[in-house]
Amino acid sequence: MKRPAVVFGLCIVAVAVVAFAIRLPRLAQRPMHPDEANEAARAGILFDTGQYRYDPKDHHGPSLYYLTLPSLEASGAARFADTTESDYRIVPVLFGVGLVLLLALAGDGLGRPAAVVAGILAAISPAMVFYSRYYIQETLLVFFTLAAVVSAWRYVRSGRTGWAVAAGLAFGLMVATKETWVLAAAAMIVAVVLTALWGRWREGGQAPERPRLSPWPLALAVAVAVVVAAVLYSSFGTNPTGLWDSVRAYGSYAEKAGGELHRHPWYFYLSMLVLDRPARGFVWSEGLIVGLAVVGLVAALTRKGAGGGDRALLRFLGFYTVALTTLYAAIPYKTPWCALGFLHGMTLMAGVGAVTLVRWMPAAWAKVAVGVALAALAAHLGWESYRLNFRLYADQRNPYVYAHASTDVLNLARHVDRLAEASPAGRDILVKVISSENPWPLPWYLRKFDRVGWWRIGAPDLPAGQAGGSDAARGWYAAVPDDPDADVVIATTDLQAELDNRLRGSYNKQAIYGLRPGVLMMVYVDERLWDAFLLQQAGPTTAPGEASGLP
Amino acid sequence: MIDKAFLAIAIVVTVIVVGLTFFAAVAIQATPEASTKEGAAPAPKDSPAEAVKAAPAEAPKAPATPKDQAAPKAPAAAPKESPAPAAGGEKLVPLAVQLPKPLFEGTPKNIKPAPTLEKPSVRPPFMVPEGLTNLALGKPVTSSDSEPIIGDLAMVTDGDKTGSDGSFVELGPGKQHVQIDLQQPALIYAIVVWHYHSEGRVYHDVIVQVADDADFVQGVRTLYNNDFDNSSGLGLGKDLEYMDDYRGRLIDAKGVKARYVRVYSNGNTSNDQNHYVEVEVYGKAPK
């Protein structure tokens, strides 16, 4: 009896190692998404000052920042400016691997073979890998959600108070991670009700095992969840208003959910996962997971082929996944990473579906054939994952690349670094960034420069000419400055005429870089600095007049 | 009885799920095709030709110093009227370049075009000797990237300038070049390069060279270079970066004599890759 459990444990560990190996390489390769840069800056403030205040309008819950602190401490960085992309992205990587490891607690719930297959699919799924290398809250939310479900299920089975406390802890962390926990919670409630109704209908109310529920462990679980969320939202008691802000936030997020920004049709996620054809020659699909999840759902409901899993848990997961998918499809506001919650539910059901398909086969040769076919499809999924995560990691033809920074932003950052190297002032050169577009992730790439001024033109929440905005670390100004002169001026191209009128100095204006596709930044360099820069460059100069071009 | 009822429900649920999936698949399939219809129509035979009017008799303006020019307005910074080739007594006519339809009109996916993109406009006439043809059409193309990500190298000289999917070759990241063998030395007066014009992009380190040999050792001449920081290692360029559009970039070759044409680029403002819709080389056989 113990040997299968050991083998199962070893399998899960092996899959987790594979998941880690897939997620870890080249963590710094992809440019920071504006959201990632924003989150890193928030974590940086906490790292530098020890202070955090929950922002009810943006940035989501506090758990990400606090859970990043160990990584930043371990990195050896003395301050935010010294930290690197990897110091932040390692956090979701670890939670992404944790999603696989958590399955060790669900072997008797999903059925051990199904749990291993689910782990494999979670390890190689292109979306799961992509957003496990993305410094946002999503992977953490999915991890805490699974932890809450598994712990609650183990409590229901065993009646042990420890599992109830674990469920409360995980639930509290869900709440403290991202406001969309309410969707997961709503889906859970729907799933519990439907599971009970389905069981009553199918089994005539004769549950195979009576749930072991008692009031005190449940009360303790609720108390733990509330305390954990309250401690984090109040910044460990230093910001009590954070508690009220965490409630107020739902008004602002409800407004966002129905707003015009990131509005997509109901089938946005399904089409993204099932079949995405962004351009000729590019076809992406996680249809294997979606298709197997449907099989798993049918098996869970019919009990035909689901094998050794707990039928109540399987049905709960099936209903939960369908409910969560429906909720996200119904909300107009959609970004690709929001799919992670129900996609992970699909991977769990897909594990069940894969095992079911094999069991449905009447003959041994047919089972082998199905197994081989599934393995081949999984291999293709892994190939897609490689392409999307390590080749087209910032390409618009990658369905998970959304409002992303261009790779050219790395060239821009490198250019400013080289200019600083050419200046006697080094990184004390004066840089002014004047942008009519959201300038993130530029603040991340200029984090080592202390003398940077930011002008965000046209942002509705910034009073003209006044410092303000939601960034507490640096002041933002809302009008083109009267005196825009600086060693380096970085501006969006639409501001060129106004900028040129106000500049008094002489500048080299040759460089344009892409911040995001369609958002271009001019880099003006003070002529004296430019001359110093040119002196540093090796190689012959193409003689003036030798080269010429017409538009 | 219950089994049958359940089976019926299961079938209905499965059909719904499969139906939704199919619908989603159809929807996503339909999108690119629809956009193709709108934005990627093949170049009509009667597509607008540039420079149909005779050139005004205004003397060419000296190019301004790049430092004084704003990069996004590079086209405006170029001489309004190109210098006439120094061919004594030779009759000059406007170079007629067949232009594809502008593609950069829609907003694909979540891409937001910059509000300052140059408005498509007619390029001023570029005066060249009579009788020039596109010598590059159908000529062999080689590249630093022998295995393009998308498309094939023949697309560079196939005459298809539409810019839609299937009309460009995509080379790998970083510095790359395409090279056209004109198959015999020729007098080259103009080279027109289309990188990618279905989205507003600036291609970095655009360098155009001609040479007498395929290895670019003998008689190498640089006709255009906007590598302002020598990041491609071919020398600092004084030319300006520019926004690629349906007009392509017309480069004055001044009647240089050469057999091979090489066009470099080093990624673009949207990604690391290098795209080539078409390269045209206007010239004629030497006397």
Describe the structure.
The complex is a heterodimer of chains A (551) and B (287). Chain A has 551 residues and is of the alpha/beta class. Chain A has two domains: 2-391, no CATH class; 408-536. Chain A is built from 21 helices and nine strands. Chain A has helices at 2-23, 34-49, 63-75, 85-101, 107-110, 112-124, 126-132, 138-158, 161-175, 181-203, 215-233, 241-257, 268-274, 287-302, 311-330, 340-360, 364-391, 408-422, 442-445, 496-502, 527-536, and strands spanning 276-279, 282-284, 431-435, 452-456, 476-477, 488-492, 507-516, 519-526, 549-550. Chain A has a six-stranded mixed β-sheet. In chain A, β1 (276-279) and β2 (282-284) form a beta hairpin. In chain A, 55% of the residues are buried. Mean pLDDT of chain A is 89; it is low at 464-474 and 547-551. Chain B contains two helices and 13 strands; from the N terminus they run ααβββββββββββββ. Chain B is globular and about 45 Å long. In chain B, 46% of the residues are buried. Chain B has two domains: 1-39; 67-284, Jelly Rolls, CATH 2.60.120.260. The longest helix of chain B is centred in the N-terminal third of the chain and has 38 residues, at 2-39. Chain B is α+β, with helices and mostly antiparallel strands. Residues 1-87 and 103-119 of chain B have low confidence and may be disordered. Chains A and B meet through α13, β1, α14, α18 and β7 of A and α1, α2, β7, β9 and β11 of B. β9 of chain A pairs antiparallel with β11 (249-266) of chain B, so a sheet runs across the interface.
